[in-house]
Amino acid sequence: MSELTPVAKAEALIRRYFQACNDADHQGLVDSFTKDGVHYFPPGLPGAPWRGAEAIADGWVWCVKNMGSRWTIEKVLTSQDGREAVIEWTHWKTAIGEVLRGDEWYIFNEDITRIVEIRAYYASPVNKAEPVNKLHDFDYEARGYALAPPSPAPKVD
User: Fold this and answer.
1) Global confidence as pTM
2) Fold adopted by 6-133
3) Where is the SnoaL-like domain positioned along the sequence (predicted)?
């Protein structure tokens, strides 16, 4: 089997990270980040930014357990050297009936085996009165975006 290109390595790492999120796989999440990795968020999220692989893993497992969180990746763009990427995602909060869309900018370590930093940006300000937070008048369905979570959230103890 041939070695993956830097672009392919970066995308595969992002997809493994999202699978670990969806599985509430604490160790898989920890393994996705450098020990001192950071996940930045827009204003309003208590405890943000999340600093350290353990804190990031704890945060996403909490989301699955308490909000029924599921995520889909809509688009991925990666730099040629594989050290940075940007994605569009959807966060399905199935237990509370909310949907949030946004983008994230990724920075990876030198060998593209771990995430060093994520900077998240929301498609719109979070409006708790809206069950689906999205861009005004953007046709998500016509563009091929997910319109439902990828699967039911796992039960987390």
Assistant:
1) 0.85
2) Nuclear Transport Factor 2; Chain: A, (3.10.450)
3) 14-117
